[in-house]
Design goal:
Layout: H1 14-33, E1 37-38, E2 44-46, H2 47-54, H3 59-64, E3 66-69, E4 75-78, H4 83-92, H5 95-99, E5 103-112, E6 124-133, H6 138-155, E7 162-166, H7 170-184, H8 193-201, H9 212-218, H10 230-245, E8 251-252, E9 264-271, E10 280-286, H11 290-293, E11 301-307, H12 308-317, E12 329-333, H13 339-351, E13 356-358, H14 365-374, E14 379-383, H15 385-389, E15 392-397, E16 402-407, H16 411-417
Parallel strand pairs: 1-5, 7-8, 12-13, 12-14
Antiparallel strand pairs: 2-4, 3-4, 5-6, 6-11, 7-9, 9-10, 10-11, 14-15, 15-16
Helix pairs in contact: 1-6, 2-4, 6-10
Bound molecules: adenosine-5'-triphosphate and magnesium ion.
Residues 81, 113, 115, 120-122, 125, 127, 259, 278, 280-283, 305-307, 309-310 line the site of adenosine-5'-triphosphate.
Subcellular location: Cytoplasm
Family: Belongs to the class-II aminoacyl-tRNA synthetase family.
Protein name: Histidine--tRNA ligase
């Protein structure tokens, strides 16, 4: 086989799909409980959207975008994240006006970044995320963090903590930039070429550098929290207060910054230590200037995004199986004569939402049982000549060595009660 999936992409195979659906269902349900509605934006957008939205001195825009020209010469980019696109749609469709002051949107889907593929880092990866546009209230920040943590709890990844920081507003950032310039001036010649460029263009980006040589200097640099203005400090204190009211104690991390320029004030990250180097499962924060920067009225907002592949990896590391998974029922036939009856039975059960598999081709009972085992069927129904003529079948629980004769009429109710 010559052609393989492109580097950094993976096929999500049927054996993993149950986990994907499990997480997606929980995310959808939990996020809906917080009043969010789904939005689906295009996979590709005008390149300009991300350059303006994410910032032209970020790694994402500088190094990681899949950008190409379409046949009319327009510059198009596969979305590396979805906040900028959701804000674009929000402005394009006047969603703010339709919904009153606060609109809450969520999305799920693939994102694309040209990164070095590693465990938990791909070039096509899936995120789900939320954007709440139209409120400056710190209680909303706390609610977003609580919602993200609740999703992990329900998936079974328990005990995760949110790391929290404030990255300030435009005003305090200006004074922090001056503090950083002063501090890094003496070290920059020993730091990586990227950081040398960052010091000129956007010194806070240095704090996100992963290069070992730079880490020594970054670990000792002044933190943003010492430079934030009283209003930003107060906002952070209020977020902490609301989190505590919700029974959540965040970990304050004064060195936390985010890789996108649009963040203001609240920044947070949720990590799972089982994941090693790529341990952030979700991250987010406030972006009070983005709507205005994209040409809309000044509108505060906050959101987060979570990485599906890392959640799946964490589930595997912790042996978490999807709970409440539906048990597959396998219908085996003892002879060709009863095959039409088994097909009718399968359709009846499926109509009642019971997952059923039956074999069309496997002849012997033995090979049908093997097929059932390969499918991880929880139950096998054996349709025999004399039993089916009395409206009955043999029902076998594959996890116990038990079987019982049961009326076809009662099967659906029996599975539903189990
Ligand atoms: P990292 O520091 O790990 O690169 P990031 O700050 O670039 O993460 P965000 O842009 O905030 O990540 O995206 C939110 C989440 O999406 C991350 O916490 C992570 O779970 C996931 N994610 C980001 N990039 C990738 C990728 N290349 N492959 C898989 N998952 C990713
Ligand atoms: Mg990244």
């Amino acid at each position: 086989m010559g052609i393989k999936a492109p580097r950094g992409t993976v096929d999500i195979l049927p054996q993993d799909m149950e986990k994907w659906h499990f997480i997606e269902d929980i995310a959808r349900q939990t996020i809906s409980c917080y009043g969010y509605q789904e939005i689906r934006t295009p996979i590709f957008e005008a390149t300009e959207l991300f350059v303006r939205g994410i910032g032209d001195s970020t790694d994402i825009v500088n190094k990681e975008m899949y950008t190409f020209q379409d046949k009319k010469g327009r510059s198009i980019t596969l979305r590396p994240e979805n906040t900028a696109a959701v804000v674009r749609a929000y402005l394009e469709h006047n969603l703010g006006i339709q919904q009153g002051s606060l609109i809450k949107l969520f999305y799920m889907g693939p994102m694309f970044r040209y990164e070095r593929p590693q465990a938990g880092r791909q070039r096509q990866f899936y995120q789900f995320g939320t954007e709440a546009i139209g409120s400056v209230h710190p209680g909303l920040d706390a609610e977003v963090i609580a919602m993200a943590l609740q999703i992990f709890e329900q998936v079974g990844i328990v005990g995760l903590k949110a790391e929290l920081n404030s990255v300030g507003c435009n005003e305090c950032r200006t004074s922090y930039h001056a503090v950083l310039l002063e501090y890094f001036r003496n070290h920059i010649s020993q730091m990586c070429p990227d950081c040398q460029m960052r010091l000129e263009k956007n010194p806070m980006r240095i704090l996100d550098c992963k290069a070992k040589t730079c880490q020594i200097y970054i670990s000792q640099c002044p933190t943003v929290i010492d430079s934030v203005c009283p209003a930003c400090r107060n906002h952070l204190d209020e977020v902490i207060k609301y989190l505590q009211l919700m029974g959540i104690s965040p970990i304050l991390n004064p060195r936390l910054v985010r890789g996108l320029d649009y963040y203001t004030k609240t920044a947070f990250e949720i990590r799972d230590e089982s994941l090693g180097a790529q341990n952030a499962v979700a991250a987010g924060g406030r972006y009070d200037n983005l709507v205005r920067d994209m040409g809309g009225p000044a509108t505060p907002a906050i959101g987060f995004a979570a990485g599906m592949e890392r959640i799946i990896l964490a589930m595997k590391n912790k042996d978490i199986e999807p709970i409440g998974k539906q048990n597959m029922v396998y219908i085996a036939v003892t002879s060709e004569e009863v095959r039409d009856k088994s097909a009718a039975l399968a359709q009846r059960l499926r109509a009642d939402n019971i997952p059923v598999e039956l074999s069309w081709d496997k002849k012997s009972l033995k090979s049908q049982f093997r097929h059932a085992a390969n499918m991880n069927a929880r139950y096998t129904i054996i349709v025999g000549d004399s039993e089916i003529n009395q409206g009955k079948v043999m029902l076998k629980d594959m996890t116990k060595e038990e079987q019982q004769l049961i009326a076809v009429e009662e099967l659906s109710a029996w599975f539903k009660s189990g």
